[in-house]
Design goal:
Helix content is 35%, strand content 22%. By secondary structure, it is an alpha+beta fold. Among the domains are: 116 residues, no CATH class; 258 residues. The strands form four sheets. The chain has a 13-stranded antiparallel beta sheet. Strand 12 and strand 13 form a beta hairpin.
């Protein structure tokens, strides 16, 4: 680092805390802070790929970058597509800074190392984005120069074909690995690469439009930067502490929401190193305006189902209710994704979410070889043991992550009804409920309702069977209810709607409620929003006597996003502002 660069970086490090205290720094300042954290890490470890890429972006330490890159490649690449995307960025950020020797080593690594393509949607997007860009960078080479055994033109054609088909499927039937607080970053960095470095005008435009599409999907389902509601994939830590995950970095970088991770997530730095795309004003408005409550619907799809189903993908019907004080989101329940599904939750707003577990939910801790065989192709005798080696909580009766075929969910605005009809031979025949250490005024009422406050959200929970409490390591309590037929009703309201928790309690106790559990769970509840909700396990829910219309569920529907199924179209809406993304014609149209 030159003396000038050192002075600039030290000045930025001293200035950043002041900017954070005074207000959110501007977008370009946030980008530079993310890159700077990797270019000048606080630890003294030898630079890795991300550090090299960040230094090249800043135009610093070219000799060190070259030497270290050759050392890393000589040690042998590992990580498959998680190796491909960092070295792809290095190749494009080089811009004449690397030595010829380092550049030859990088080129040769794509001949000698064969990365595994992976088995999830984010794997394939990263793999084919990287292959596309590297084949573009080194054209006119035959198959002997590539680990695939195919020529540059063949690699480019295969990668382009897959990426185009993925965009088409996503914009007609929804994402398969949808709304993941961890994995959203890998989709965004991949599209950032295409938007920045693809030379084909259509592929470049496709990448930039998908950035709008994916960012819009997150923008409408965030509360102060926290990704709320149902997720396809979520890890044990982040399902409880919702801030502590990559999506928070994107909320901060893109919209100035919340607090960034320290150090920044790997995905956010590579997003910044490529296009560093700043969302349009309409996306900024959608992401940050919570002045009025709203309900949003979207349609996703399951992961590829290899057994037990006639359709490769099943529909995922999502509902999200958002207001300033809290958000509630859900899918319809079932095993829609293997291992890491999160079917519903309540999230309440807090001034600073770091270290806070501002969420509440229940689940059936399902563990079964049937689920794994549906979504994976490995031999059955290594199924559960193979999964537990990396997803250690999967076969735990105390877990808080996972879907179940015996759980059905119905949401109407800020009311949730969850019903369970667990098979007698199920491995763990009970339900777990997460009651956070950060709930206040928790009261168990003689009526059977549990009342609590989370921030400015008043929460009423009605377990339909007896339960006991079990402590959670680190704080909080697990509601444990060991019955095959079971359920819970959750009604949430804003603190401003009632004088106090007692006033809220009285209002809840006045609401008509009927339920039965044998032989099949059934609930009839008149919600705070004056709607009569009827839900029987395995049947279509009714709202004021009208069945929920799953057949006409929109790809996106709500005050901010509109997209019919099979349309390849997304309309962003805010006030009189409109942005129309037409993926069939690859056009973007803005109007006011």
């Amino acid at each position: 680092m030159t003396r000038i660069h050192r002075l600039c970086f030290v000045s930025w490090c001293l200035l950043l805390p002041l900017l954070l205290r005074a207000g959110t720094p501007a977008f370009d300042q946030r980008v530079r802070s993310v890159v700077g954290a990797y270019a000048h890490p606080l630890n003294s470890s030898p630079p890795g790929y991300a550090n090299i890429a960040a230094k090249l972006w800043l135009g610093e330490d070219a000799a060190l970058c070259s030497r270290r890159l050759e050392e890393l490649l000589a040690a042998g690449p590992t990580g498959d597509m998680f190796w491909m995307y960092p070295v792809t960025a290095i190749a494009y950020l080089d811009r004449g800074q690397l030595t010829d020797s380092a550049r030859r080593s990088l080129r040769d690594s794509f001949r000698t190392y064969m990365p595994y393509r992976g088995d999830t949607e984010n794997h394939w997007v990263m793999y084919y984005t990287s292959l596309y860009l590297m084949a573009q960078l080194w054209p006119d080479q035959d198959g002997s120069q590539w680990y695939t055994g195919k020529s540059s033109a063949e690699n480019l054609r295969e990668a382009a074909g897959w990426l185009e088909s993925w965009v088409r499927l996503t914009t007609t039937r929804g994402q398969g690995e949808y709304d993941s607080p961890s994995y959203m970053g890998y989709y965004l960095l991949s599209m950032s690469y295409l938007a920045a470095w693809a030379r084909d005008p259509d592929m470049k435009k496709r990448g930039s439009m998908m950035l709008d599409y994916l960012i819009a999907d997150y923008a409408v389902k965030n509360l102060g930067g926290l990704y709320v509601g149902a997720h396809s994939r979520v890890y044990d830590r982040e399902v409880l502490e919702k801030w502590n995950v990559a999506s928070s970095d994107f909320g901060w970088l893109l919209f100035g929401l919340g607090y960034p991770l320290s150090p920044p997530s790997n995905a956010i730095v590579f997003y910044a190193l490529a296009s560093a795309y700043q969302p349009a004003e309409i996306l900024q408005r959608i992401a940050t305006d919570r002045s009025q409550p709203y309900i949003h619907y979207d349609l996703k799809r399951t992961r590829n189902r290899w057994r037990f189903f006639d359709q490769l993908h099943g529909p995922v019907y999502k509902t999200t209710y958002v207001r300033r004080e809290y958000a509630i989101g859900s899918d319809q329940g079932g095993t829609l994704q293997p291992i890491q599904e999160h079917s519903w939750d309540v999230t309440w707003a807090v001034p600073d979410p770091r270290g806070v577990q501002n969420t509440l939910f229940t689940l059936h801790p399902y563990s079964s070889l049937d689920e794994l065989q549906t979504y994976f192709t490995f031999p059955p005798d290594i199924g559960i043991s193979g999964v537990v080696s990396s997803k250690k909580s999967y076969d735990s009766p105390d877990k808080f992550v996972g879907g179940s075929p015996y759980e059905k969910v119905f949401q109407d605005e800020d009311t949730i009804i969850v019903l369970y009809d667990i098979a007698p031979n199920s491995r763990f025949p009970h339900i777990n409920g997460f009651f956070s250490k950060d709930l206040t005024q928790v009261r168990e009422d003689p009526s059977g309702w549990i009342f609590a406050r989370g921030g400015d959200a008043l929460i009423a929970c009605r377990p339909l069977r007896p339960y006991t409490w079990k402590p959670i390591e680190g704080g909080g309590r697990r509601l444990f209810s060991p019955y095959l037929t079971n359920g819970i009703i959750v009604q949430v309201a804003a603190r401003s709607e009632f004088a106090d928790l007692d006033d809220f309690r009285r209002a809840i106790l006045m609401l008509p409620l009927e339920f039965s559990l044998d032989p099949t769970p059934r609930v009839r509840f008149h919600s705070l929003r004056r709607r009569t909700l009827e839900f029987t396990y395995g049947q279509v829910p009714l709202v004021n006597g009208t069945p929920l219309d799953y057949a006409h569920w929109p790809l996106f529907g709500g005050p901010f996003l509109e997209a019919p199924v099979d349309s390849e179209l997304l309309i962003l809406k805010y006030g009189t502002m409109r942005r129309r993304l037409d993926f069939h014609r690859l056009t973007v149209t803005d109007s006011r």
